[in-house]
Amino acid sequence: MSDCIFCKIAAGEIPSATLYEDENFRVILDLGPATYGHALIIPKKHYANLIEIPDELAGKAMILAKKVVTVMTKALPCDGYNVVQNNGECAGQTVFHFHIHLIPRYKGDHAGVTWKPGKLTDEARDEILKKAAGKF
Ligand code: 5GP
Ligand code: ZN
User: Fold this and answer.
1) Closest atom of ligand 1 relative to the 29 alpha carbon
2) Ligand 1 centre from 33 Cα, in Å?
3) What's the angle, vertex CA 95, arms to CA 77 and CA 105, rounded to 5?
């Protein structure tokens, strides 16, 4: 995708603070970090979201997330991590090239990676299970 900023960053055409790079991915520091050390895993090939990315690469991305979280938990150091992956504008996706957010957490920080829990009603439970039944 010629007009995609993450394609250009992943290819090294736009400079980025790169923590790690291999044949499939570049891991960079986010320019608008939620916390100190917020990083992004970006595949070098363009896929818009989790639905588009091939299974094998999605698996490799999660293995890489594990590696980066393991290394950076000690290196920063931090007290925890949120691994976040947004799909679609309504879910907060602003760059439509698949990426995984790795957000270090520190005791007492105010990063807002949470939600107000609702209540799973019996009706919703039955309806959702029925919608999914037989589709996997
Ligand atoms: P999304 O909202 O799509 O899940 O996440 C996009 C992320 O990319 C945001 O956290 C934003 O700060 C980050 N971002 C957007 N443009 C750039 C850029 O040019 N360089 C870097 N390093 N991060 C960017
Ligand atoms: Zn792209």
Assistant:
1) 22
2) 9
3) 20
